[in-house]
Amino acid sequence: MPAIQETVDQVSQIDVDQYKYGFVTDIESDRAPKGLSEDIVRFISAKKNEPDWMLEWRLDAYRRWLTMTEPTWSRVHYPKIDFEDLYYYSAPKSTPGPKSLDEVDPELLAMYEKLGIPLREREILAGVEGASDRRVAVDAVFDSVSVVTTFKEELKKAGVIFCAISEAIREYPEIVKKYLGSVVPVTDNFYATLNSAVFSDGSFVYIPEGVRCPMELSTYFRINERNTGQFERTLIIAEKGAYVSYLEGCTAPMRDENQLHAAVVELVALEDAEIKYSTVQNWYPGDKDGKGGIYNFVTKRGDCRGDRSKISWTQVETGSAITWKYPSCILRGDDSQGEFYSIAVSNGYQQVDSGTKMIHLGKNTKSRIISKGIAAGRSDNTYRGLVSAHRKASGARNFTNCDSLLIGDKCGAHTVPYIESKNASAVFEHEATTSKIADDQLFYCLQRGLSSEEAVALIVNGFVKDVIQQLPMEFAVEAQKLISISLEGSVG
Amino acid sequence: MLEIKNLHASIDGKEILRGVDLIVPTGEVHAIMGPNGSGKSTLSYVLSGRDGYDVTDGEILFDGKDIVEMPAEERASAGVFLAFQYPLEIPGVATMTFLKAAMNAQRKARGEAELTTPDFMRRVKTAAEKLNVTQEMLRRPLNVGFSGGEKKRNEILQMALLEPKLAVLDETDSGLDIDALRVVSEGVNALRDPGRSMLVITHYQRLLDHIVPDKVHVMSAGRIVRTGGPELALELEAKGYADYAGEAA
Ligand SMILES: Nc1ncnc2c1ncn2[C@@H]1O[C@H](COP(=O)(O)OP(=O)(O)O)[C@@H](O)[C@H]1O
Ligand SMILES: [Mg+2]
Predict the structure, then answer these.
(1) B14 lines ligand 1 (CB under 6 A)
(2) How many CA atoms lie within 13 A of B241 on its CB side?
(3) Cα separation, B100 vs B85, whole angstroms
(4) Which SUPFAM superfamilies does its entry note (chain A) (predicted)?
(5) Which of A174, A233, A302, B41 could lock onto A202 through a cystine, CB 3.0 to 4.6 A?
(6) Is residue B125 part of a domain?
(7) B73: which chain A residues are within 8 Å (Cβ-Cβ)?
């Protein structure tokens, strides 16, 4: 039985003093009322059967959040979010889903078809009621139960811990206590603080010293992942000399009722350890007129804590109405390395403000940034990146390359690099280009027999090649397909 | 093969082609000469279906079928090829990748199977050698940083691989030195075929020393105003286009 379900069942058996929560709600109810208060934080913590220290940690975050204001420095524009008008806890299945695929948005279904997703799996992704409870459907998602079993066995043998963070909080409190909030402090920023108070669930990965994780870890393999909700929390720790490659998300868009997403991801790499973190983000971008769509405010940060450690972020962002995301590396250990490879695609009315921060603290630290922004329709695509060298970071090196590709003339691409060097021996290089798919280039392709969609895909694939190469093989092919689909209808 | 009747076409409301009549029988090579601005490139774009041109009257019969309403990519797959006066650069897309995509797109449109990689490689190698197109060029992004001569050879390479029924060559000689001109012309001549028609657009007679046409047409102010044999090109070379300038008014 999935751990979460177990927890929910256990909790629902406890007779809870309703009054304590200050609102009349049955603990068996799957949803807390709208709005945020200390009581809601307590409720979430109790629902997850958390130890006291965790509750205190959340409450502390909540109190600090009350004193903070939303940041306004990014280039994205959206109506003010009413934080009192949101649900902060809703258990799996509490929002009624469609009864069958007939009730699902046909555009979503068309997308599944193009991606070649099996029928039963489409039901799960679309949130059709009961779909994920059926064993047969689960099999469809995970190839087969035996795959999952073998997979778990193998990880166990290697000593790798890979589970829901709620499970880790109960089972491995010492590790969680030591690292949670050690990379993204509770008060880091408005959204991270909010996440710290109310996070729903997420992944926990621990790779012991000297272990090379025997397989790519993918959220796709974790059953609990299905309903982690809007405030996801992930913590990955690679001990000395360990290696792990982690894949987040999948290329199929999921039905999602939550408009606001504010995840926090923390990575810790100790001496000689390496973490590769790859993301494909494909949430609902809103309709043709720019209505609806997910607001995605994410804090992702990796700490190269040990000497010679390495953290590499690779992201393919095609979804969400608003993306606000800067996966960063703190290069603390001497000779540590940080990498950021990004493809951000925006179409329709999407707004993307994304980039990275490379904070060079240790000696001879190196970082590399390759960012490819593609803007089509009426979208806005901003790369925002900071590279800084601390006084002690002698021999720090950075190479940044930011390319933007415009499709049509109603979209915008912007590059906002910040460079701060407090060490004279640091060498930072920056290259940036902006190009456009011109009508005559397109006609040239058509004249050779390519359709306008094939032509755009060809040109775009050429443009993003350097980043696609960084993705694990099976992801790379899907990501390419996804990018082409996201840009469909952007010309002609 | 190609029959153009009373073709009128305009761009942004401005009429450029004003009643073009032209017949190119299967297997023949015809030249179109004419002063700058007479509408030669426009004709090539209208033939190949470029967006932005309004055909206001007349018809274009290709293999007996009117293709005026046919989208550009369908015309390409049906066998219409245009060697561009100014070939476009496509950064990030290796020439080889582009060739394969184009060949397979056309095959798919015609209901044929995609080429296997060895088959494709063999075809490219054979055609490239004849045109002095190096492997290194094939690996580079399409036309990016190519010299004028390399770009034109690359156009003829594409023509050789796509095996069109009708090839329109727009000022393929422009920007070529005499050696490059010879290579390109030889490439074109090698593609002369009883089943293939060609329309060679040029401003200068010198190309026609190498590619000897069956007929020469003179275009002026959006019309074909004179048609003759290869000797007409020599006459134009001697007299210039002065006689035809008046028609532009
Ligand atoms: N996109 C355009 N918009 C407006 N006028 C154009 C455009 N393209 C060509 N023309 C005009 O059409 C006429 C014919 O041009 P073109 O076909 O390029 O002639 P040629 O190839 O014979 O030199 C010229 O007067 C030119 O200025
Ligand atoms: Mg011209």
Answers:
(1) yes
(2) 21
(3) 22
(4) Stabilizer of iron transporter SufD (SSF101960)
(5) A233
(6) no
(7) 446-447, 449-452
| Ligand 1 near B152 CB (within 6 A) | no
pLDDT at position B213: 96
User: How many contacts, defined by CB atoms under 8 Å, are there between A and B?
Assistant: 76
Say which residue the tokens 């811990």 belong to. Answer: A161
Residue B11 covered by a domain: yes
Q: Is residue B212 part of a domain?
A: yes
CATH classification of the domain holding B222: 3.40.50.300
- Cα B103 from Cα B123, distance rounded (Å): 11
SS3 state of residue B217: strand
Residues of B in contact with A440 (CB under 8 A): 88
Joined tokens for residue B92: 């990030």
Q: Which-ligand-closest: CA of B35?
A: 1
Structural domain tally of chain B?
A: 1
Measured between CA atoms, the residue of chain A closest to residue B98 is: A458
Provide the H-helix boundaries in chain B.
40-48, 72-78, 95-109, 117-130, 135-139, 148-162, 178-190, 206-210, 231-239, 242-245
The ipTM is 0.96
Confidence of residue A12 (pLDDT cuts 50, 70, 90): very low
Look-up of token digits 């690779």: A314
* B18 Cα to the center of ligand 1, angstroms: 13
Q: Say whether B101 and A450 touch across the interface (CB within 8 A).
A: yes
Domain that holds residue B183: 2-92+165-248
Average pLDDT, integer, range A37-62: 92
B74: CA distance to ligand 2 center in Å? 24
Catalogue the long-range contacts made by B94-97 (C-beta closer than 8 Å, 24 or more residues apart). B94/A462, B94/B138, B94/B139, B94/B140, B94/B141, B94/B142, B95/B137, B95/B138, B95/B139, B95/B140, B95/B141, B95/B142, B95/B143, B95/B154, B96/B124, B96/B138, B96/B139, B97/A458, B97/A462
Tokens read off for A160:
């790798």
- Residue B25: phi and psi, rounded to 5, are -70, 160
Which residues of chain A lie closer than 8 angstroms to B82, CB-CB? 447
Q: Is position B124 within any domain?
A: no
Do A449 and B76 make contact, defined as CB atoms within 8 angstroms? yes
For residue B49, give the nearest of B57, B60, B36, B38 by alpha carbon.
B60
How far apart CA A132 and CA A85 sit, in angstroms, is 29
Residue of A nearest to B97 (CA): A458
Mean pLDDT of all residues in A433-451: 93
Structural domain spans, chain A: 2-85, 101-438
